[in-house]
Design a protein that fits this description.
Layout lengths: L4 H17 L20 H9 L1 H4 L9 E2 L5 E2 L6 E5 L1 E5 L3 E2 L17 E8 L6 E7 L2 E3 L5 E3 L2 E6 L5 E2 L16 E3 L3 E7 L10 E7 L8 E7 L6 E2 L6 E2 L16 E5 L4 E10 L3 E9 L9 E4 L10 E10 L2 E10 L7 E9 L6 E2 L21 E2 L4 E3 L2 E8 L14 E8 L4 E5 L4 E5 L2 E2 L5 E18 L21 E6 L16 E16 L1
Parallel strand pairs: 1-32
Antiparallel strand pairs: 2-35, 3-31, 4-30, 5-29, 6-7, 7-10, 8-9, 10-11, 10-12, 13-14, 14-15, 15-16, 15-17, 18-19, 19-20, 20-21, 22-23, 23-24, 24-25, 26-28, 27-28, 28-29, 30-35, 31-35, 33-34, 33-35
Helix pairs in contact: 1-2
Length: 521
């Protein structure tokens, strides 16, 4: 798992390759509206963005790292100094047996339910969903629009109600759950402490022309998530206009969110390069109005299938890091569009690497099933008990399938808490040693799964990887039963009080077991 010198050499090669192949412009030149792009260079150049050893080519195994009391996960190598006989496994969420939970059963939903955003109210505990109906219809003014924003809610997250709100007219009736007459919701930010009660809900909604003066993303605000006001007549950000370099505007499926750790509004941006080739970027804002320049974050590389494009990236803060759901688009597998879901990881919220070897995180359904082709998950998984609930939209796009349930619908997948990735040891015993850690807690816990004939042992090491007295492997109480929160204790000492300025490594020995995370508290 350590970075190799070969990776460093490859990084230098990529830099020189780009310098030698991309057209150069003098500092006083005006960049033309379009310029030639040799697409064959991108997998070589932008592959740096997806690879942990290429993005971070220095071995940091002996560098100390400060951690807090949040759970420490293993989606990347950030905390790992060395491993032996260890495999990293990406785990799949379990699809709910009643899927799909929400289906298009109203005229204003027509071809399906799309662009869903799900939140759980912190006060009432109710689940709330904003989504769009896949329909085109005429407003009372005669203007033809599509994708009205709709609202649903649930007490248990399984059984959903579509309330009759009576706010907007659809085919001469206001008996519906429309909350915004047209436009896809690509961001829902709830700020209960906003000093203006009318702005405690903020939505970023994409509008097409006819309904607005110019196509793009518009800011809406609301006191309750149901009654919305558009704040400006002009878009905050314009939509993509053509496929040139540099492109003007950003593409659809750009996702907006608030990042509580960076204290910034974030947009995961859709870029479209010449040839209609999709990739992903990022930009930041302090006020949802003024944004930094979009920059590239994720791009298909030579490890991807030839038809791979980045269709979406839905990122979120989770415990000690950031995690993303990466939508990869494929068109040659079946002859129609499919989007699969992979995992990404970040330690600063700005630089992203891909997890594993292009494994699907949320697998597509089998041919003929309702979710066979087009996964689109909601970001911010919702913690319910010891499970993470992930709502996802999907559809069966097979034109030959006569299944009457074909159409965009919403399902639920559940995952063990922290259960994205595990480090697995089998036979011979696996060993994981962390970087030197600075921490404030006094008790160690792990989230682990242990087979009937398996076990996990832990020890504390000093900087030089020598066992600390009373905290060696022979002193630990062997963990033989897994669980979401398993205490790790030593025979003679209950807690370890970390002397100021010390750094301590953790060493895990893993036999027929899996570790998902650890933390001190």
């Amino acid at each position: 798992m350590n970075a190799s010198s070969r990776s460093a050499y490859y990084l230098l090669f990529c830099v020189f390759y780009v310098a030698a192949t991309v057209p150069a412009y003098a500092s006083d030149d005006v960049l033309p509206n379009s310029w030639y792009v040799d697409r064959s260079l991108f997998p070589k150049a932008y592959g740096i963005l997806d690879s942990e050893p290429l993005m971070f080519p220095v071995d940091m195994g002996d560098w100390p790292v400060k951690i807090d009391s949040t759970h420490q996960l293993f989606l990347d190598d950030y905390l790992i100094a060395s491993v032996e006989n260890i495999e990293r496994e990406i785990h799949h969420p379990h699809k709910h047996p009643n899927n799909p939970l929400i289906v298009p059963d109203e005229p204003w939903e027509d071809a399906g339910i799309v662009f869903q955003i799900v939140r759980r109210d912190e006060v009432t505990g109710r689940f709330r969903m904003w989504y769009a109906g896949h329909v085109r219809y005429d407003l009372p003014s005669g203007i033809s629009v599509r994708f009205p924003t709709l609202y649903a809610e649930s007490q248990d997250g399984i059984h959903w109600e579509k309330p009759d709100l009576g706010l907007f007219e659809f085919e001469s009736s206001k008996s519906n759950n429309i909350v915004i007459p047209a436009g896809n919701p690509f961001g829902m930010i709830i700020e209960p402490n906003d000093p203006d009660p009318a702005r405690r809900y903020k939505a970023i909604v994409w509008h097409e022309p006819k309904y607005v003066p110019r196509e793009g993303y518009f800011l809406y605000t609301s006191p309750d998530g149901i009654h919305w006001t558009r704040e400006t007549e002009q878009p905050l950000l314009v939509s993509l206009q053509g496929y040139t370099m540099p492109q003007s505007g950003i593409g659809d499926t750009s996702i907006f969110r608030w990042d509580p750790r960076l204290m910034k509004y974030i947009c995961d941006v859709k870029f479209v390069l010449p040839g209609k080739f999709r990739c992903r970027g990022m930009m930041e804002s302090d006020d949802l109005i003024h944004w930094t320049s979009p920059r590239m974050t994720l791009y298909p590389d030579e490890l991807d299938e030839p038809d791979s494009q980045v269709y979406g990236h839905l990122s979120f803060c989770y415990e000690s890091m950031w995690i993303g759901f990466l939508r990869m688009m494929h068109t040659e597998r079946t002859g129609w569009k499919q989007t699969t879901i992979e995992l990404t990881a970040s330690r600063d919220g700005r630089h992203w690497t891909r997890v594993g070897k292009r494994e699907e995180f949320l697998p597509l359904g089998n041919p003929g099933e309702w979710d066979a082709d087009y996964h689109d998950p909601s970001w911010d998984p919702i913690l319910v008990g010891d499970e993470l609930w992930i709502y996802y939209r999907s559809v069966n796009r097979d034109p030959s399938d006569k299944n009457p349930n074909v159409g965009h619908a919403i399902g639920l997948a559940t995952l063990r808490r922290d259960g994205f990735v595990s480090l697995n040891g089998s036979d011979p015993t696996g060993v994981v040693i962390t970087r030197p850690l600075t921490f404030a807690g006094e008790s160690l816990f792990i989230n682990a799964e242990v087979a009937e004939n398996g076990w996990i042992k832990a020890s504390l090491l000093d900087d030089a990887r020598n066992p600390i007295r009373d905290f060696g492997l022979e002193d630990t109480v062997t963990v033989k039963t897994g669980g979401i929160s398993v205490p790790v204790v030593w025979k003679n000492i209950d807690v370890y009080r970390l002397p100021k300025g010390d750094h301590v490594r953790l060493q895990f020995e893993i036999k027929n077991a899996k570790i998902y995370s650890f933390w001190f508290q």
